[in-house]
């Protein structure tokens, strides 16, 4: 297999939703998001690594985009949903741990039941993704989380691609569990001004190893990920409340308002007040 370019960094990734006719791909590609495919009116056929896999019509398929993948036969399918979910967001959905672990190990997850979701659901997700207001972004994330939970609760099975097909080392169950522990701990405590050592301790790892594992898989440092969690929370508070900026900064874990302004500007390109006005359609 030909070498692949580096996948995009975590901060460049976003939840995306397409609904279109699937197209055959000339070669494998890969990325860091979790990919969800739902072919509505016909099966589709992939090469996941070097193994041919068929996703039946109406079933939900999930896999980690780090596995080189290629759609090789659209199988008569004319309508398919293609979702790309940032891995940190997916791991925050509080799903079945076995499902998340197997996905991180490079397995393909397929729903046991067909037609859990229809075109109307997908069109609504698309509309919410197109809104600029944070309210709709939060609503969309909740609906995608519910979609994944429905797959987990109604039954699923996994398919294992060939060994050696993943460009980065596949995660062992132990490494996948450690990564999950770190992300879960940060998701609960990011407003407390966490240090890297605290995150590593939550997973019972040496800080240097924790940083290496996290960056290798997530494409960003632990500090960058914590900052992203803090700023995303601040965005919601700015859009949905009239709380003073200083109050929001402190409640999101920043030690001072100046640090908050600096971080917010670097990640969004706006000041907090500009973001508040823009999210409310005031400019």
From TrEMBL:
Lineage of source species: Bacteria, Pseudomonadati, Pseudomonadota, Gammaproteobacteria, Aeromonadales
SUPFAM superfamilies (alphabetical): Homeodomain-like, RmlC-like cupins
Segments crossing the lipid bilayer: none
Domain spans labelled HTH araC/xylS-type: 180-278
InterPro entries, alphabetized: Homeodomain-like_sf, HTH_AraC, HTH_AraC-typ_CS, RmlC-like_jellyroll, RmlC_Cupin_sf, Tscrpt_reg_AraC-type_HTH
Annotated protein name in UniProt: Transcriptional regulator MelR
Keywords: DNA-binding, Transcription, Transcription regulation
Superkingdom classification of source: Bacteria
Entry-linked PROSITE patterns: HTH_ARAC_FAMILY_1, HTH_ARAC_FAMILY_2
Natural source organism: Zobellella iuensis
């Amino acid at each position: 297999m030909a070498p692949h370019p580096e996948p995009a960094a975590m901060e460049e990734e976003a939840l995306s939703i397409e609904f279109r006719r699937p197209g055959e791909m000339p070669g494998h590609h890969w990325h860091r998001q979790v990919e969800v495919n739902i072919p509505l009116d016909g099966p589709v056929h992939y090469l996941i690594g070097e193994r041919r896999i068929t996703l039946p019509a109406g079933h939900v398929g999930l896999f980690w985009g780090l596995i080189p993948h290629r759609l090789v036969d659209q199988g008569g399918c004319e309508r398919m949903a293609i979702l790309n979910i940032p891995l940190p967001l997916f791991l925050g959905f509080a799903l079945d741990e076995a499902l998340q672990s197997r996905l991180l190990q490079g397995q393909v997850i397929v729903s046991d039941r067909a037609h859990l979701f229809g075109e109307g659901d997908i069109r609504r997700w698309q509309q919410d993704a197109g809104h600029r207001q944070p309210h709709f972004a939060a609503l969309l994330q909740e609906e995608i989380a519910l979609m994944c939970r429905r797959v987990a609760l109604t039954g699923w099975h996994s398919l294992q691609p060939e060994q050696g097909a993943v460009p980065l080392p596949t995660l062992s169950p132990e490494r996948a569990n450690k990564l999950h522990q770190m992300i879960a701990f940060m998701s609960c405590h990011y407003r407390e001004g966490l240090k890297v050592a605290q995150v590593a301790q939550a997973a019972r790892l040496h800080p240097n190893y924790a940083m290496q594992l996290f960056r290798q898989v997530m494409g960003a440092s632990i500090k960058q990920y914590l900052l992203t969690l803090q700023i995303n929370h601040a965005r919601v508070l700015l859009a949905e409340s009239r709380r003073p900026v200083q109050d929001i900064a402190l409640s999101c874990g920043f030690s001072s308002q100046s640090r908050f302004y600096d971080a917010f500007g670097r990640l969004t390109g706006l000041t907090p007040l500009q973001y508040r006005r823009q999210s409310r359609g005031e400019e």
